[in-house]
Amino acid sequence: MSDEEDIILSELSDDELVPQMHDDLYDGMKEEIEEGVNILLERGWMPYDVLTKALVEGMRIVGIDFRDGILFVPEVLLAANAMKGGMAILKPLLAETGAPRLGNMVIGTVKGDIHDIGKNLVTMMMEGAGFEVKDLGINNPVENYIDELESGEYDILGMSALLTTTMPYMKVVIDTMVEKGMRDDYTVLVGGAPLNDEFGKAIGADAYCRDAAVAVETAKEFMAKKHNQLSA
Amino acid sequence: MSKILQKIIDKQGFVLTDGATGTNLFNMGLMAGDAPEMWNEEHPDRITKLYQSAVDAGSDLFLTNSFGGNASRLKLHNAGHRARELSRMAAEIGREVADKCDRDIVVAGSVGPTGEIMGAAGTLSHEDAVEIFEEQAHGLLEGGADVLWVETISAPEEYAAAAEAMQNVGADWCGTMSFDTAGRTMMGTTSTGMVEMIAGMDYKPFAFGANCGVGASDLLRTVMGFSDTGTERPIIAKGNAGIPKYVDGHIHYDGTPELMAEYALMARNAGATIIGGCCGTMPEHLSAMRKALDSTAKGEKPSLEQISASIGPFSSEHDGTGDTSNQPARRKRRRG
Fold it and tell me: Do strands B244-247 and B250-253 pair parallel, antiparallel, or not at all (unpaired)?
């Protein structure tokens, strides 16, 4: 036994519980996160506040340390898994209470490329940040992206490629969006090991995202801009 | 213990491996998204040419065209059941090329990662991973590989599963990891962490090291991390020929043959014995590396400053080794 006493979440005040939940997300403790979410709801918190103040803020901290090379993929996966546990409780309540949505994203690895670890990580981190993500999987021809975008209410298109030979295909997708007059309706984010800022600009994407944490931050920035424009 | 590798090391003090497989095959017409392993059956002439080009450029060792030849990767091409067979073919073609050569050439059976995530947050179990690696290992040995070559691994769990498979089939093996995230592997393993991991293993590789990752300078820093531990196990350095650049719709690696020759000398000075290239490394790079290694004596271990001055800047300030007191650390948590 350690000298420290076990922390009883239900005995913590709101001001102590929320930072404790950030810690528990950081440590990937799923059961504790589920318990914390339930306690806050019982105390009358709005589901949207639980999502943003406890979970999204906690994942933001995880994202910062992932970006800075302090946390690595295994820790991030565990944190995302804990976040998912909390989200499962909140999701139906968020819909009922008409909470504002952060944004919806379509993501997929481009045609000819079957790599998916990076894309899966972005999906998890985006969901962790409160976005709704439709994952199209690997090896997607341009029609897959266009059809999905046209079929729903989406804000963001994410494309991933790990091969130097498949990354130019991202331009095919963006060019098709331009032809169809739908390019400006979406924020297009691209990522993958061989890409860089220069490439993102060259093909007409809105941004290149170096890793999953950057993807989340970038998506948030673009969504904030979009909301500002709508309310202006 | 690999007799043929030891023999070459005893004779010349180093082993020059091959360079890129993918980059070369794409230049021969492989289409993005196609499984290169299919060419072992459909275009054995091109695979012969790939191996022969490394041998002709002066390589002592080449990797077989079987990097993605495990059931987990091949199933994405509906060929999961053909892992053993396609791996065997890759090695058979290699055996023929090596046996025709009048000097010792090592056929190294390439074993790449499964592409699945293992460990606490993963989906692939240890037992399943061992089985996947073992099946491929059987094929490579049947085809006549001298040594099996596990490469581009990120997770310690996956390295351990590969080691167990190597033990089960009784293969001589080497194993490298890819350090591509702030000097660590994607899963957070440091260079010194890898040395410790191997020290604790039952069935150790003949040689270990780093391949791929970011640029050649990062890879050299990783090699310095290995040799600073004082390990006596041969160290492998297989770095990329610079960094990929997008020029006029094509990708090319910015490392020149001269830069890769300098990298090869620095890798040897840093403590590597088995030296070669990875992505972007073409026969002209290998020739320059061979010439440099043959005509230059091993020198003093370089400093990190000398490496970045000659080869290029590092992708991150720290790599998680050495004095970590001034490096960013995990946040203090309130639970025990």
Answer: antiparallel
CA–CA distance, B114 with B162 (Å, rounded to integer): 10
Rounded to whole angstroms, the Cα distance separating A122 from A106 reads 11
Question: Which residues are CB-contacts of B117 (< 8 A; sequence separation ≥ 6)?
Answer: A73, A77, A117, B123, B124, B155
Rounded Cα gap, residues B226 and A147, in angstroms: 50
* Chain B environment of A111 (Cβ under 8 Å): 32-33
Q: Which residue on chain B is closest to A17 by alpha carbon? A: B334
Scan for tokens 């990662």, then name that residue. Answer: B113
Mark out chain B residues that contact chain A at CB-CB < 8 A. 22, 26, 31-34, 73, 76-77, 115, 117, 119-122, 154-155, 180-184, 186-188, 244, 246, 249, 251, 316, 318, 320, 328-331, 333-336
> pTM of the full predicted structure?
0.88
**DSSP code string of A74-134:** HHHHHHHHHHHHHHHHHHHHHHHTTPPP--EEEEEEBTT----HHHHHHHHHHHHTT-EEE
| Residue indicated by tokens 């592409």 | B115
CA atoms within 13 A on the CB side of B252: 9
pLDDT, tens digit (0-9, with 9 covering 90-100), for A38-92: 999 999 999 999 999 999 899 989 988 988 888 998 898 899 889 989 999 998 9
Among B76, B330, B333, select the one facing A114 at the smallest CB separation: B76
User: What gap in Å lies between CA B225 and CA B282, rounded to an integer?
Assistant: 27
> Looking at this predicted complex, what is its ipTM?
0.80
Contact A65 B187 (CB under 8 A): no
Is residue B205 a contact partner of residue B234, using CB atoms and an 8 Å limit?
no
The two tokens of residue A114 are 């079957």
Taking a C-beta distance cutoff of 8 angstroms, is the pair B50, B37 a contact? no
